[in-house]
Every structure is written in structure tokens, then in C-alpha cells.
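Q: Start with the shorter request: fold the first protein.
A: Done. Sequence, then structure:
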Amino acid sequence: MHKAEFSRIITKTIDILAAESRLHPDVFVKSGEDFEPIVVKALEASIKHFNFDVTIDYKPQSHRFPDIVLISQTGKYGVEVKSSIAKNKSWRINGNSVMGSTREADLLATVIIFGKLVPGNCQFRAKNYEECVANVVVTHSPRYLIDMDTPTGQSFFDQSNISYKTMVKSEKPIDLITSYFKQAGQQAWWLSDSTPAAIRFFRDLPNHEKEALKAYAFVHYPEIFSSDAKKYLRFTTWLATEQSIIDPSLRDIFSAGGKTTVDTEQYSYLEVHQIFKTLRNTRKAVITELKNADSGCLSTDWGVSVTDDYQRRKDTWIRLAYLQVNEKGLAGINIKKMLIHIIND
């Protein structure tokens, strides 16, 4: 079996998984190691379809990387199985350890088969492993962060100029990674769960990323509309532990400049706090975050039950934000109406 034939097997396997999930949806309400035998069965059907001379080596609960090895007379190929039951649009998940102590040797290629196992809406993707390694994060040890939406040519290996093959063969892969970050003027950070491996400053980020992060703060942490001295605590903690981003003057990003005017389609609001102008300028990203945020995550951050319905989410967020606003200095302004105008226009 050559790489082209391996690719045909994987493509057919994805088709089989999609068809079977529609025919037998109850079987696919699984995750983790329970999904692996389903993929093995689909691989068997695919190999039989093409009548290839290939043997499947699968050891349940072996914690080997990759989970499945296809063996032919011309070499071995790997299939790593990942799954998620989250309803959000993300195709991200933590991959194997950078150290690779359980890695199968001498593989000609490795792909990931990722199943989004949402009842009634199962989706499946496959991609070459090294092409969807977006970054390096830390759980109990440095691991690859898998993102099936990683653009071509923008994987971690592309950006670092360290090939996956070099990483696999290295006796000290961590040293390669930390050296790369140092050369890029960044500091490797191996402290928190699932944290990108280099510290960045908010001020140095591209504008589109700044806007997305501000939108995340507005949506997930409505207390930033309050006058509490600790109102940015949850956001700064999330930035540091989950994104490895810090900023010594984060408050200025949202509210520097004192009172201002906020123009909406319906009305001009005079002498309001700068944070409402920032919200207005970030409106599109806020709407995107409200629509796409994971319901479980919002429920945790808001302390209330959250559904997937956008209108209900928006109404809940407006109520939570309104309850946080200190009305002192905003006399005569209907704050809830202002929030509605800012978001709805």
C-alpha cells in the first residue's frame, strides 16, 4: 500500500462513518476510547471495499500513538482517533505528548480521524497529523494542540521550521520547542493546563485577535461593566492561564478616555462611559461570540442555564450586563435600551 492508497482508505472511511451515523445514530453517542472500535470497523470495511492487502493493528486501551496502525507489505501507516461531544463549532482538541514515549516507530504517514459526535448531527474529518498541529500546550506535560481548521502552511511545524519528522526523531523535543520560542522573542511557559507555550502581550497582538479577545471578555464576563476594582480579574486570569496573554494596563483597553458619545442607528448617547464605545466598536465580534460560544462554558461563566438559541442568549447577556452597570453619572439614560441599541443595530 502506497500513500495514495492509504489516502483512499481514509476518505472512504470518513464516508462510511458518515453513512453509518445516519443509519445507526445511537451507536455513535460515544466518545474517547469507545469511538475507536467504530473507526476500526469502518477502516475494515474501507479496506475490504478496495480489496487492499492491509492488516489492522489495534490494541484497545493501549495508549499507543497512534491508536491504529495499518500494516502493508510496503510499510506502516497510522490513524489517531479523536472525538468530541461538544456542540460548538471548534475542531480543537489536545493531541499526543510532545515527548512521544508511546509513539509507534517507522510510520510512513499518520492521519487524524476526528468525530464530532453530536446526537443527530455527527460530523467526521480526517487530516494529516502534522498539518493540524496548531500549537503546543501544557496539560500534565507538553502536548500538541490539534485544530482540524489549521490553514495549509500555518501549522506549528510550518511556523517553527521544525519538521514533524525532526521532532519525532529528536531525543530532546522540548529543547527544540523552547529554542524556537526564544528565537521568536518569546518565553516558553509550562505552568498551566492547556496553555499555549509562549507568553504574549496583548498590545502586540494583531487587531483581529485583539477584537476577538475583547468580544470574549464582554460576552463571558459581564462584570467588566461594573465599577468593581476586581472586575477584570476573571478575564485576566483566563487570558493568562488559557491563552498565555498578559497586559499590565488591561483596563485602558476597554475604558481609557473618560466620558464619550456613542452613536447608534436609533440614538446618540451623550456623556457615557468609554466602555460602551468600546462595546459598540467591537459589536460584530461580540455577536459572533454570542452565537458560537459553547453553551456549557457560558453557563459556567454566567452562573445561569444557557441554551443554543441566539436570541435567548442575547437577552440573557443584556440583562446580566445591565445589572452590573453603575448608574451613577448616567442619569436620564435607559441603560438596558442603550445596550440593546448598541448590539442590535
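Q: Next, the second protein, separately.
A: Sequence, then structure:
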Amino acid sequence: MKRISLCLCTLLVSLSAFSQGIQEYCTLDSLKYKGDMRHYWIHVPEKLSDAAPLMVCLHGYGGDAVRKSKVQLVELADREGFVVCFPQGLRDPRGKTGWNVGYPAQDGMKTDDIGFVEKLTKALQRKYSLDSRNAFLVGMSNGGEMCYLMARRKPDLFAGVISIAGLTLECMKPIGYNKPVPFMEVHGTADKTSYWTGDHTNAYGWGAYLSVPAAISYVVAANGCSGYSQETLPDTTKPVILHKYLDGKPARHGKGHATEVWLYEVQGGTHSWSDKEMDTYAQIWSFMSRFMY
């Protein structure tokens, strides 16, 4: 009977991708930070793996944690045994929800999302007795920009950082990377929101930003990666080239894994999770499981 119940639960989670979203499988909670009550949705599987990881997943600009978060990540958490959290971004001066990464429209915005993500991550690790070494940050679009920013500002907080269609803004460059961190980027070459080739003149209003290969080159250099491999993924609807930069300096004060940087070049892919072109969630788990402690 228990096995039947678990199978039914998995089926319902799968069907939910076409229904109402993550709120049916998550608990709404909140955390006060610098005067704001910050809300988040969290899913804790019935069975957690040993040294269970935490995934913090950041939605895109103008979205919300319920409608813009992926039920497939809940499925993945159940299957592999980790906790997944979907925080809600606050509104910027334009009234758009998201994360304060330095867009021109966010000029003067005081929200400290770097500190909030750090506090939330540590609070959840304590609350659910999770291994503090095994936190991962995932972000889509504006959430992906936060991934690049957190990798610069808080590299020891996460065992790995995963950006989906994210960018490195020119205003981030002076911050620099001060420690190595495993990093993964998934990006479509035909993305018309976050251009693969960059926007060096701020033609589209997000602020000037680097091309995706240039942005990745900064992470590769900071990690000291000396190796490289390339492969074309099988069973994809469009060509997906995985560029792996290997043999980087160990993370975590020289005691962790050798760092790597994975760039998925989705040829002809648009501004999305690229989950119509490939099994993005399997690739995310492949990355996470490689860099868990």
C-alpha cells in the first residue's frame, strides 16, 4: 500500500506540471529580514538522503515563486532526496518582482537580496538539519543574474551555482570572483531576452552585459580551470553542446572538490529552461551530485 501511495504521489506531481503549480506540494513560510517579511515555498520529501542537500531556486523578473517555479524540481527533490525552496522576490521601483542585481530600473533600490539569500539558506539548513556544505543555488533569468552575483559575493555558501538563461551585467565586473566555485549555465543561442552575444550598449534596457561565453570565461579564470572537453548531448530536440572546463582549483578553502564550469550551448534555444530541448533537470542533478560532499 505504501508503494502504491508513493507511485500515486509521483503521478500527481507529474500531472501538476500542467495544472496549478508548486503550491500544492510545498509549504508557505516566511522569514523576517531587514524589516521585510520575506516569503518562500518549501518542499521537504518524506525521505531525505544522507547529507541531504538544499536547493534554493530563484524565479525570473516580474514573476512569482508559484507560477514561475518548476514542479519538475519538486519531482527531482522527491526522487533524489533533497529539500527545495522557492523564495519570493520583492517589488522594485517599477513594481516588478525580482532580485536586486543592478538593472537601471532598480537604481536606488535598497533591497539586500544577497543578505536575504544567505540568511534564508543558513536558516533552512538549521531548521531541517541539512548538511551546511551541500547547498545549491539555481536561478532563471533575473534569478540567473543573482547566481552570478552570489558566486562573486558568497562563494563559500554554495557547493555549486546553476544559472538558467542568466547574465553578467557590466556593473558586476568590479566585484570580481575572490574564490573558486563550481558553476553551470544553460543558455539558448536564440534567446531574445538575454542575448547570447551580450548587449554592450544597453540597447535593450537591462543595463550593459557581457556575452555568455565572456561571462563564463571570468568564472573559468577565477576557478583556474586548466582542462576542457566538449560533447553534443544525445536525445535532444535541438543541438545542445556541453562545454566543460575542468581541473579547477578546489573550492572550500582548498579542501573541496576540484571546481568545474559547465556551459550548455542550446543552439536555437530561446529564453527558457531549455526543457523542451533536453532534460534540463537530469543535467542539474548530474551537476549537483558531482559536487556534493
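Q: Describe the second briefly.
A: Residues 2-16 form the longest helix (15 residues). The chain has one domain: 2-290.
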